[in-house]
Specification:
A four-stranded parallel sheet has the order 3-2-1-8, covered by helices on one side. A four-stranded parallel sheet has the order 4-5-6-7, covered by helices on one side. It has helices at about 10-20, 40-50, 70-85, 100-110, 130-140, 155-165, 185-190, 210-220; strands spanning about 1-5, 25, 55, 90, 115-120, 145, 170-175, 195-200. About 45% of the residues are buried. The chain has a single domain (about 1-220), classed as Copper homeostasis (CutC) domain (TIM Barrel), CATH 3.20.20.380. Strand 2 (about 25), helix 2 and strand 3 form a beta-alpha-beta unit. It is of the alpha/beta class.
Length: about 220
């Protein structure tokens, strides 16, 4: 099992690795739920930590419906990540009807290869979890970050368990959404997931820097 930390700054990347996390989802703009980090931050993170770094590819906050100009920007950011040596990225695109934009996602997954692609929580604002699961599998993504179409992973625990069962090993389902040391044991037990996603933030944090003790507590609860 592994823990991925959503990091909004280099401090969180360093803390995550030190505390035993296995992967970084690197983002900017925490108030918007994460957007594409700067080239400099990606490069610096890759040079200063040894665990995999998956930059977010999201050109702005708001919805996940992108026009042609935004899609071209996303393609350039993906190529930059590949050039820098990233192992993977996280992205997601919707159609105006709310479903996954499979055709454009396929194009991005193909462009990203051999990098892995995580479909981020755009999945959680689609109207049908079953259809969206099959759509994302069809795009060639490696995993789905989801709270089970609910506000938090704990709220969506039943849907998460169903998605993991339905996926049947065809794609990784990674619970995320207010995953903390206080509930990760429940999520492990009730979902059967093998990967988990958390910011590692606590109520004490005002700078969006992960709390080292919180990350350690989550890692300690993962069966080894």
């Amino acid at each position: 099992m592994l823990l991925e930390i959503c990091a909004y700054n280099i401090q969180s990347c360093i803390i995550a690795e030190k505390a035993g996390a296995s992967r970084i989802e690197l983002c900017a703009d925490p108030t918007y739920g994460g957007t594409t980090p700067s080239y400099g931050l990606i490069q610096y993170a890759l040079s200063n930590i040894s665990i995999p770094v998956f930059p977010m590819i999201r050109p702005r906050g708001g919805n996940f419906i992108y026009d042609a100009d935004e899609l071209e920007i996303m393609k350039k950011d993906i190529l930059a990540c590949k050039e820098l040596g990233c192992i993977g990225i996280a992205t997601g695109i919707q159609l105006p009807n709310g479903n996954i934009d499979t055709e454009n996602m396929k194009r991005l997954v193909g462009l990203a290869y051999p990098m892995q692609v995580t479909c981020h929580k755009a999945f959680d604002v689609t109207p049908d979890a079953h259809r969206s699961l099959e759509d994302v599998i069809d795009t060639g993504c490696s995993r789905i970050l989801t709270s089970g179409l609910r506000k938090t992973a704990v709220d969506g625990v039943a849907v998460l368990a169903h998605l993991i069962n339905e996926a049947a090993g065809r794609i990784i389902i990674m619970p995320g959404g207010s995953v903390r040391s206080s509930n990760i044991a429940q999520l492990i037990k009730e979902t059967g997931a093998r990967e988990f996603h958390s910011s590692g933030l606590t109520a004490k944090e005002g700078t969006f820097i992960a709390n080292e003790e919180e990350v350690k507590l989550m890692v300690q609860q993962l069966p080894h």
